[in-house]
Amino acid sequence: MDLRLAAYAVCIENGRVLLARHVPPEGEPNWTLPGGRVEHAEDPFDAVVREVAEETGLEAVVERLLGVDSRVVPAGERRLPGRPELQNVGIFYRVRITGGRLRPEPNGETAESVWTLLPDIAGLGRSSLVDIGLALARTVPPTGHVAPVPVGGLIRH
Q1: Domain extents in the chain
Q2: Strand locations in the chain, DSSP E?
Q3: Fold for domain 2-142?
Q4: pLDDT at residue 79 above 80?
Q5: What is this structure's pTM?
């Protein structure tokens, strides 16, 4: 089994959420939250700020920890065939944008970042991370845990 530790930013302002359009080298593009892999010896708190800057061009500060999501992606649902199942541990933070300008990620997989009205999200092809992050932001569960988000249709791993 592969393991991935990642930190994600949930930034909601004026009824809009900041989304990033992820365009992988293989597979379908989809909308996701800014964020990504926590580097070796990096604090997830620092990783989310770094990832927002890299992917969107915006400067962010963490306001609070929202929660942690752990899910196993079966081998057959991985983007790259032949890979074992993946345990994705995502740490979600509520962040506030303090500066910068939206731009695509230079030499990366984020083609664009946009502010999206919350009601419009239901019609987007998106990662389950978007629904998890929004559920955590909406409910702020004391345990920091939300029920699993089913994938399929417009929602993917």
Answers
A1: 2-142
A2: 2-10, 12-13, 16-22, 30-32, 35-37, 58-73, 86-100, 110-117, 126-127, 155-156
A3: Nucleoside Triphosphate Pyrophosphohydrolase (3.90.79)
A4: no
A5: 0.93
